[in-house]
Amino acid sequence: MKQTNQQNRMIKRYCILCVIFVCMWNIPSYGQMLTKAQMLADLNFLQGHVNEYCYFVPLLEQRTGVSVNAEFDQLKQTITGPEPIDKFIYTVRTGLNFLNDWHTGIANKWQILMCCTPNYYLSPLSNATVADTLHATYYQRLITDSIYGKVKCGIWIKYLNGKYYNIRSFTYKGIPVQSGEKISAIDGIPINRFINKYRNQMLFPLWDPVHKQWYEESFIYALPEMGMQKFSLTIGNKKINIDCAKPMDNLQKIHAQSHGPKMLLINNDILYIDMPSMFNANWYINEFLHIYISSIKKIIIDIRNNGGGSDGVWQDLLKKIIDKPLKYRYCVGMKHNAILEKAVSSFGTIKVEGSNAILTQDVTLRPDSNSVHFNGKIYVLQNQHVYSAAAALSSVALQERNMVLVGEPIPVIAGYTLPPILFKLPNSGIAFELAFSADLSGGKKNPYMDKVEVPVNLSLKEYLDMIFHNDYHSDDFLRNKDKLIQYVKEH
């Protein structure tokens, strides 16, 4: 029996090695050349899957005036001959940028591993395998780490009210360039025109719904890959020549910032909850139950710069807060696809409408047995950089009469949606995530789910004071200087 078990183990290991070898046999290697036909086939695959799955594309086109298919057709014209995968990945990133969605992008190995988990509900739609993790980290670094490593000039730019401003003061050939000076041109081209023309080559272009134009504060990081290692900026009335690889002289320092979640009493009648991410629900619950006092009249949940995580974090916290059941409607649009509909059927009722399908569920969050039974207003603070599970909380806040959404509109189509689907391109093997759904709970009044109930924006002067002279996560700043919190205190 012992000998038989040993033989069985050897056979099992051999079979596993064979499976891995077979899976990896067709995986492209670093620097492998792709033919024009292979790259065009990959772009056709990507465009085809966008048309097949991405429900939100008509909303995007209506919002920005672009044509996603026209942009794909133009992108394919840039393929003129063989290229290494290392270069083609930037073309793929450009295609993904067409969708202007934070859930869409080149996949890393952890995203692939999650997708390949046997019980993951979106796995049946994916063509990726565990073997695709082999090069995923390398590809991801090509469009992230390597890009940031090429830019050392230290210039920091802020887009505000349709214009660009230099943030960190510095000197150029002995001439002072001040913080807050307006940037009007790149290599002599008006900056808004330049960004619009090359927006899809940027790291992630955003849409300004007020001024109806694309913008990108981090455009400098895209310039080296565009062949613009050296370029000029017109700042004020000065033409500044910049080499991305060389730091500017006498760069102004930003004030040190503290980090991490926190809870804070303000005047003993406002409870401030800072949620920089949607993780670690137990910490928020325990801290909340510990700090809450009966004199609290308002609660603030601050999700500014929250990159998401799990919806369960804000849901579990609200169950400890609310006095009465909190009801909201989960309403998501997607393309009609039998496999997709089966995969997400546990999330609600699905109604097919022509080529589309609508997933709905009426959700009720009930107070837990140890809820504090708070019945006052809950203010949710957001800025432009709210994403995924955090945007889901914003969506709920817009529906609940005892919650108020305060801050900045989101520059992408946002809301409470489903996770992306992961695919890989057939020739290059590049894996990517593709968002496919849209939050329809806003109806005709808020079709892009980008609005807030109470707009509160920082002026340039307020922004500069905040980052240069304050730790804006400190107790003192939050209690006395934070503009959004001041609004809550006054209303």
Description of the structure:
The chain is an alpha+beta fold. The chain folds into three domains: 118 residues, Histone Acetyltransferase, Chain A; 89 residues, Pdz3 Domain (Roll); 210 residues, 2-enoyl-CoA Hydratase, Chain A, domain 1. The protein has 16 helices and 25 strands. Strands 4, 5, 8, 9, 12 and 13 form a six-stranded antiparallel beta sheet that branches. A six-stranded mixed beta sheet has the order 14-15-16-20-21-25, sandwiched between helices. A four-stranded antiparallel beta sheet has the order 18-19-17-24. α2 runs parallel beside α5 and α6 runs antiparallel to α7. It is globular. The N terminus is likely disordered.
Low-confidence stretches: 1-26
Instruction: Report the CATH topology name of the largest domain.
Output: 2-enoyl-CoA Hydratase, Chain A, domain 1
Level of helix content? 25-40%
Helix/strand-derived class?
Answer: alpha+beta
End-to-end distance: 78 Å
